[in-house]
From TrEMBL, chains A, B:
<keyword id="KW-0238">DNA-binding</keyword>
<dbReference type="InterPro" id="IPR014710">
    <property type="entry name" value="RmlC-like_jellyroll"/>
</dbReference>
<dbReference type="InterPro" id="IPR018490">
    <property type="entry name" value="cNMP-bd_dom_sf"/>
</dbReference>
<dbReference type="Pfam" id="PF13545">
    <property type="entry name" value="HTH_Crp_2"/>
</dbReference>
<protein>
    <submittedName>
        <fullName>Crp/Fnr family transcriptional regulator</fullName>
    </submittedName>
</protein>
<dbReference type="InterPro" id="IPR036388">
    <property type="entry name" value="WH-like_DNA-bd_sf"/>
</dbReference>
<dbReference type="Pfam" id="PF00027">
    <property type="entry name" value="cNMP_binding"/>
</dbReference>
<feature type="domain" description="HTH crp-type">
    <location>
        <begin position="146"/>
        <end position="209"/>
    </location>
</feature>
<keyword id="KW-0804">Transcription</keyword>
<keyword id="KW-0805">Transcription regulation</keyword>
<dbReference type="InterPro" id="IPR012318">
    <property type="entry name" value="HTH_CRP"/>
</dbReference>
<dbReference type="InterPro" id="IPR036390">
    <property type="entry name" value="WH_DNA-bd_sf"/>
</dbReference>
<dbReference type="InterPro" id="IPR000595">
    <property type="entry name" value="cNMP-bd_dom"/>
</dbReference>
<feature type="domain" description="Cyclic nucleotide-binding">
    <location>
        <begin position="24"/>
        <end position="132"/>
    </location>
</feature>
<dbReference type="InterPro" id="IPR050397">
    <property type="entry name" value="Env_Response_Regulators"/>
</dbReference>
Amino acid sequence: MTDWIADTPSLSALSPASKTRLGALQPMALPRGAVIFRPGDDVTGFPVILSGRVEVFLTGAGGRELLLYAVEPGQTCVQTTLGLLGGDASYSAEALCATDSRAILIPRPVFLTLMDSDPAFRQLVFTAFAERMGGMIQLMERVSFQSVECRLAAFLCNRAENGRVQATQSEIAAQIGTAREVVSRRLDAFARRGWVRTERGAVEIIDAPALRRLALAEGL
Amino acid sequence: MTDWIADTPSLSALSPASKTRLGALQPMALPRGAVIFRPGDDVTGFPVILSGRVEVFLTGAGGRELLLYAVEPGQTCVQTTLGLLGGDASYSAEALCATDSRAILIPRPVFLTLMDSDPAFRQLVFTAFAERMGGMIQLMERVSFQSVECRLAAFLCNRAENGRVQATQSEIAAQIGTAREVVSRRLDAFARRGWVRTERGAVEIIDAPALRRLALAEGL
DNA sequence: TGAACGAAGGTGACCTTGTCACAGACAAGG
DNA sequence: CCTTGTCTGTGACAAGGTCACCTTCGTTCA
């Protein structure tokens, strides 16, 4: 087993005592698609992602989904912090592994001890919290004030690798908080303008600058 | 001048040293309508509301507004915590006094000292943070998955005093994150069903149970 | 091998929301 | 009075969400 503490930059500032305490924990392997938690689950501990990517979704009545945020290596999950520190200790969102991942789960008592004893750990949790909150406010702004077209363009720009985005239209819809049908129609509109080409399970980007211009047109 | 620390329950658990430190600060009087901060302002300190009510809005391109959360006595502002602890130190939202209010502003250095030295203060800031985050997620859920009709009904139920809601339709629109015209039409629909009666600057509630049923119809 | 099934994507119809433009109603002060 | 600014109502239209249903692919498995 690798020394996961040394391999995780965000943990490097922790005190030696904290590292010792955490050293006893075993990383878990989580396959792509694994459910970390669902709405209503109890909070049993504080997960830290070591590798991979976990996505946290809100699910609405009609089955529509909205990506709240993604957790990447070294980051922590706010939903959990919320449960461990605040009032109600259950989740209101759903977390799924977007890729194969490894994570540790810090049990609640250990978490509380670290919070009280290690300023570096506090700092870690706090800045994670602050960043998430900022992200949530930006998300709020995008979802309620920006057009779907604009959000879609921004998404395509961000997720593109070698001019391609590997994702089904349903997935894209969940990421930007709209319905699949709308994504289908918007992508079609982009395609007719010659900006993209759609395939089953992927979108090929032809005119990235045009998309970027559109993404920036409506404010941030 | 009254002893504002003793009068604020949420501060009672602080250590004597913290109280001494805070005792030197002078409460500020803020009239209704006063602007606490605007987008782009720098974060100079950590405000704690002693009395009154402060509302924090997000403002979109077309001038549309959305109430993110309200700060009530003993509570603190997350936007600020975010600025003091996280990366970027400027606000992305706007805070207005909804009523005449009193507040203290804890200067940044004092805030940071208290965070490191007083577990009770930490607890205070942290739970405030956790509660806000929970509230933001609920807001997200309402704004992106619930109909305007439902949100409006819920708002009327919550804000009613003696069967009346004192607010202009513009204010209501900002509170539930929609456009004024839409509020006008929805209220009209409620009125035709005999549930409310509208006046200039107020809404009288006639059939509260009907509204409550509608508010609960689409999940929380 | 080919029938069947399920996931992904396309489309039309329809309703709800948001936007724009503008008009009437009302309150407070000159 | 008359004016001015705020509050409210309305029609027309565009954008987005929902529903129903169909087509097109891959995969599986009998």
